[in-house]
Amino acid sequence: MEKFEGYEYVEGGVCAAKGFRANGLNCGLNPDKNKNDLALLVSDTACQTAAVYTTNKVKGAPITVTRRHLEATGGMSRAVIANSKNANTCNADGEKKAERMAELTAEALGIEKDEVVVASTGVIGQILPIEPIEDHIGELVQGLSYEGNAAAVNAIMTTDTVPKEAAVSFDLGGTKCTLGGMAKGSGMIHPNMATTLNFITTDAAISSILLQKALQEVTKITYNCLSIDGDTSTNDMVCVMANGVAGGQEVSEEDGTYDVFRQALYIVMMNLTRMLAKDGEGATKLIECRVSEAKDLDTAIIVAKSVVRSPLFKCAIFGEDANWGRILCAVGYAEAEFDITRVDVDLASEAGVLPVCRNGSGIPFSEEFAKEVLAKDEIFVNISLHQGEKTAKAWGCDLTYDYVRINGDYRS
Asked: Do 225 and 291 lie in a common domain?
């Protein structure tokens, strides 16, 4: 993980911050009894809560219910209940089932139903059986632990091959605070909110307005800059809960303390984004595209995203083929204004840097060295537009035979 001065990586994911317990178990939604399918995350006290959701017009019932709950409480929550294996989307009884999940959680915890965030992930269009959740909610609550993050993150995984967690501790106006998160996702991931299910917790004290602002700002340059396959999911959600248990003065102004908090949120979300990209379905390589010297941030983001979501380029990276023309092609159809005759491109990895394009035209390079660079599992595409001072990154992965195999029989 990239180091940031003043921030220390710590273990614990969503349980790294004070006052958060979690658990996960198999309730029967997933026939594989070794795989958890129901997760619960609970704060000891009420949390300021911010969320962002998918931009897909088709939205899972849990998103509709969660939005309604947060509106009713003025952006406060105490718990998250989430299941995998079934998305509870495009079902006539979807909202009823999502509300029932919240009711069961609230009753077991002794809190209000509207204080519960609901999330689901899995197959779209299949009726969600509520009985397994009803039968196991008591056990789920009984097993809550301040070290329960691993069980919880396992429960939200679908085709993920590894759990995705990150957390940092930092000084916020003289108070030691912690911010951590967990994420799931390997496929049906495409820029423009949010990417899969992502839950973030912090013991810092921050106003609801600034929490929402920070989440939206950081989402724009992290999760919204991730693409695995060009499909925007119906159930995407990022939820941040701040319980203020660490103490200290609340962040209520856009001053230095807000910047410190926002950076902590960026570090965790950026690392989770990279993990999601690296674990794309069938992926063998992480792709990170960095666009620099753009005239504005939006231009840098648009160009970077255009490259990482190009199927042809993703295939070239899988084949370890330095076909840099596919990069220029993707840059060229990016919907932004810039002078293509000033664009430089380098490919890089831990093996070294390979310049392939200067001023929009190809330059000679060693194919042997190119193979060495592209043989690594993390590939960096560095693009300089030479037309400004703004920089942005986007993340993706290669496109492999296994992606088709995994998605060819996803329901089974």
From this structure: no
Q: What is the pLDDT of residues 201-211, one digit of tens each?
A: 999 999 999 99
For residue 123, give the DSSP letter. B
pTM: predicted TM-score of the whole model, two decimal places: 0.87
**Chain-wide mean pLDDT for the chain?**
91
**Alpha-carbon distances, residue 21 vs 15, 45, 74, 258 (angstroms):** 6, 11, 23, 26
- Supply 404's token pair: 């088709």
Confidence of residue 15 (pLDDT cuts 50, 70, 90): very high
Decide if pLDDT at 194 tops 70. Answer: no
Per-residue confidence (pLDDT) for residue 185, from 0 to 100: 74
DSSP designation for 342: G
Number of domains in the chain: 2
Name which of 111, 99, 138, 143 is nearest 47 in CA terms: 111
Of the residues 66, 195, 273, 400, only one is catalytic, namely 195
- Work out the burial of residue 68: count CB atoms within 10 Å of its CB; fewer than 13 is exposed, 13-18 middle, 19 or more buried: middle
- In this prediction, residues 363-376 reach a mean pLDDT of 97
For range 375-381, the mean pLDDT: 96
DSSP annotation of 17: S
For the chain, percent of residues with pLDDT exceeding 70: 92
The residue type at 377: D
Q: 205-230: buried (b, 16+ CB within 10 Å) or exposed (e) per residue?
A: bbbbebbbbbbeebbbbbbbbbbbbe
Q: How many CB atoms lie within 10 A of CB 3?
A: 8
Q: What is d(CA 397, CA 386) in angstroms, rounded to the nearest whole number?
A: 26
> Does the pLDDT at position 49 exceed 90?
yes
Q: What's 317's domain CATH number?
A: 3.10.20.340
Alpha carbon distances (Å) from 283 to 159, 161, 233: 12, 10, 19
- Is 219 considered catalytic here? no
Pick from 71, 21, 12, 2: which is nearest to 245 by CA?
Answer: 21
Do residues 147 and 70 share a domain? yes
The pLDDT tens digits of the residues spanning 349-358 come to 999 999 999 9
Boundary residue ending a domain (243, 278, 313) = 278
Give me the residue label for tokens 């231009």: 299
Residue 271 shares a structural domain with residue 403 = no
